[in-house]
Each structure stands twice: as structure tokens, then as C-alpha cells.
Design brief:
Oligomer: single chain
CATH superfamily of the largest domain: DNA integrity scanning protein, DisA, N-terminal domain
CATH architecture of the largest domain: 3-Layer(aba) Sandwich
Largest sheet: 7 strands, mixed
Strand order of the largest sheet: 2-4-3-1-5-6-7
Radius of gyration: 25 Å
Number of domains: 2
Structural class: alpha+beta
CATH topology of the largest domain: YojJ-like (1
Strand content: 5-15%
Order of helices and strands: HHHHHHHHEHEHEEHEEEH
CATH class of the largest domain: Alpha Beta
């Protein structure tokens, strides 16, 4: 049989690729890419590759009939799902929170558009007054007073708020500056705000473990990033060293923004 005939026979033996199969491949590739972006720079990716290597070694051991190695790897694989759930518990929780609150597909998500419609239909919908926040950030930037303000959007944050002191006061520039005054007993930690209300102060935030973050960033900036990795919130940071204003959302921090840029972003983000 000629080489051409063998090639034709091999091609004919391949399964037929339908449109559904193509869509399936594209969706799996997209989901895999999104998961890779979420865990890139963290220890999760290293653990994932370790699991893949162990699985490949198990297949090789089974192929060459290495019964002892195959048995060891087989036992590990059989309980692998439970181990992965235990090891990846924080990441799984973060992923489920993100799925429940927002999605990066096509910009604004359906959930955001639904919430925007619901808020417009509600008689209790209140416009957020940004001037106190912007003025406070400007003054603290000029005086190089370190600050971390977290804007609550849709997630429940009771667990983190419980780590601080309840305030429940109407926001004002003077109040925010007083809370972050370095001799104030409430200056350390984060201030949580929702709408025009200061909810709590001196709250302890989760610190991001992303290895891709600039190593020169301090604990305040890492905390600002970490809370946005786990919750649908926006964090605004004023650097104590440089006075620079930054904001973080979705695990990404935007450095050295002007008060005008901060106002424009908050107007857009808090309206969703």
C-alpha cells in the first residue's frame, strides 16, 4: 500500500469535527485561559503543574506495568480531588464569589446591568456623593497620610467588617481624615464605606499572595489588592511614603492617579 493510501486511510479514520465540537474546544480553551489568568503568579499554578506531572508519571508507570509505582500514584490520584479542594479552598471560594458577582466577558456583565436596572427602579436608590472622598484623598496625599478606603458594592463583607470598629456615620472629608490621622487609635487598617456612609474603621484585610505584584509595594497596597481579589469592592490607597493615590479593583492596582481620574472612575464604577 502506498504512502498516499496510508495517509488517506488515516485521515478517513479520524473522527468528524462538527460545529458543536469546535464550539466545545473554543469554550474549554477560553475557560482554561481565564483560570490561568486568575492563578498566574500564585503558588496555585505550581501546585497544578505538580499534579499534572504526577498524573503523567502514573500513566507512564501503568504503561510499563510498574505495579508498585502505579499503585502509589493510583492511590494519590484516587484522593486527588479531595486534596485539591483542601489545597485550593481559598482560590475556589474566590472563584465562586467572582462568578456570583461579576464576569469579565464582554465588559459589563448581565448581573451588573440587572443591578443597575434594579437600582434605578428603587425609590431608595441614593446617589453617592464623591466629593468628601476626593477631598479627603487630596488632603491626605498632600500631607502624606497613609490611608486605605474600601468601597462596598454588592458582596456581603460582614466577616471583614467585624474585624474592625463599627462607625455607621455619614461620610465627610473631616471624618475620613480624622480616622486616618496617625495618632488616632483607628488609623491602622482599612475604612469600609458604602454609599454615603462610613461603615467601619480599623478593619483587617486579606493580603494578596500574588507573586507578580511589585515587591516594592508595602502591606497597605498588598491588602488593597488582596481584598479586591476576594470581594466585589474597590479599594483606594494613599501612600504614606510618597502621597501617591492608587485604586485597586479585581486584583489589579492602578498607580499614581489624579483626583480627577479617581473621581471619573468611581463615578463610573459605583453607578453599576
Amino acid at each position: 500500500m502506498s504512502l498516499l493510501n496510508l495517509t488517506i486511510a488515516a485521515i478517513q479514520g479520524l473522527p468528524t469535527l462538527t460545529i458543536v465540537d469546535a464550539i466545545d474546544i473554543v469554550l474549554v480553551a477560553f475557560i482554561g485561559y481565564q483560570i490561568y489568568k486568575a492563578v498566574r503568579g500564585t503558588n496555585v499554578l505550581r501546585i497544578f503543574w505538580a499534579v499534572v506531572i504526577i498524573y503523567i508519571l502514573w500513566q507512564i508507570a501503568s504503561l510499563f506495568n510498574m505495579r508498585l509505582l502505579s499503585s502509589i500514584f493510583g492511590q494519590f490520584i484516587s484522593i486527588g480531588l479531595i486534596l485539591l479542594i483542601i489545597v485550593f479552598q481559598p482560590e475556589i471560594r474566590r472563584f465562586l464569589l467572582l462568578v456570583g458577582t461579576k464576569t469579565s466577558i464582554g465588559g459589563d456583565s448581565f448581573l451588573k446591568r440587572f443591578r443597575f436596572w434594579k437600582n434605578n427602579m428603587s425609590d431608595n436608590n441614593q446617589q453617592v456623593e464623591l466629593e468628601p472622598y476626593i477631598q479627603a484623598c487630596m488632603h491626605m496625599s498632600q500631607s502624606k497620610t497613609g490611608a486605605l478606603i474600601v468601597f462596598i458594592r454588592q458582596n456581603e463583607v460582614n466577616d471583614i467588617v467585624a474585624t474592625g470598629e463599627r462607625i455607621n456615620a455619614v461620610v465627610s472629608s473631616a471624618l475620613l481624615e480624622t480616622l486616618f490621622f496617625k495618632n488616632s487609635p483607628l488609623h491602622d487598617g482599612a475604612v469600609f464605606v458604602k454609599g454615603n456612609t462610613v461603615v467601619a474603621a480599623r478593619c483587617i484585610l486579606p493580603v494578596s499572595s500574588n507573586n507578580a505584584i511589585d515587591p516594592n509595594l508595602g502591606l497597605r497596597h498588598r491588602s488593597a489588592i488582596g481584598v479586591t481579589e476576594q470581594l466585589d469592592v474597590i479599594s483606594v490607597v494613599v501612600s504614606e511614603e510618597t502621597g501617591a493615590i492608587s485604586y485597586a479593583v479585581g486584583g489589579v492596582i492602578h498607580h499614581n492617579v489624579t483626583p480627577v481620574q479617581l473621581r471619573q472612575y468611581l463615578e463610573s464604577a459605583l453607578a453599576q
